[in-house]
Amino acid sequence: FTMIASVSKGAGQTVSMSTKRAAELGIENFQDLIDYCEEHPYELTISSQPNNSTGAAVTCLMDGGLKVTTVNVGETGERITAVLSGNIDMCVTNYGAVEQYDESGDLLVLVSCGPDQNPYAPNVPPSGNYGMDEDFAPYYYLCAPKGTPEEIIQILDDAIREITEMPEYAEALVNTAQVVGYRGHTELADFLNAQKAILATHEVIGMI
Q: pLDDT, tens digit, for every residue of 83-109?
């Protein structure tokens, strides 16, 4: 396939810890977590699934220096249950999945993974604030069959860019927990290759 352009991206994953566990460790914010993991490397466990956006989000944090051990405990509901029951220390999910627990005080949402503020979690700081600014939000993009003429790719790319610049397009994405994430075909290919290279360096680090 040949990349045409990305049309949107997920708003990003968040990292949560039970308020009980956070209190035991003296963790009130993400900087506290960073400091604790520096003093106790790979002691704390965090949910992660290979080859999906949660695994990529954890890779982003580990690449930035967060020393945690990853554990695959299943899908979103299973991750949250594992944290609330004390079987693991942290879970990675989209904010919508943990919002009710954040509001009830059962979970402390420490950070949103990515360089920019997550519009769906305005009170949760992005990891970019802590120097962890790799963008591992899931991108949604269009492709054409390999060998499609460059001029056709460019026409389609330009059309997608124009659509993503429309205010009503951004408004429509709200219901899908996505934001505008346009990248042209050349930039998108370079971006995805860079992501693959970073992910490859963390295939075994901190895994159990």
A: 999 999 999 988 888 989 999 999 999
How far is residue 15 from each of residues 52, 108, 144, 159, measured CA to CA in Å?
Answer: 15, 9, 35, 36
What is the four-CA torsion angle of 160, 163, 167, 170, rounded to 10 degrees? Answer: -50
Write down the pTM of the prediction.
Answer: 0.75
Confidence of residue 138 (pLDDT cuts 50, 70, 90): confident
* Residue pointed to by tokens 């695994």: 55
Strand bridging mode 13-18 / 2-10? unpaired
Give the contacts of 14 (CB within 8 A, at least 6 positions apart). 92, 93, 94, 95, 98, 109, 110, 111, 112, 113, 118, 121, 124
- Could you tell me the pLDDT band of residue 114, with boundaries at 50, 70 and 90? confident
Structure tokens at 56: 């990529």
In this structure, are residues 57 and 134 in contact, taking their beta carbons and an 8 Å threshold?
no
| DSSP letter (8 states) at residue 46 | E
Local structure of residue 190 (DSSP, 8 states): H
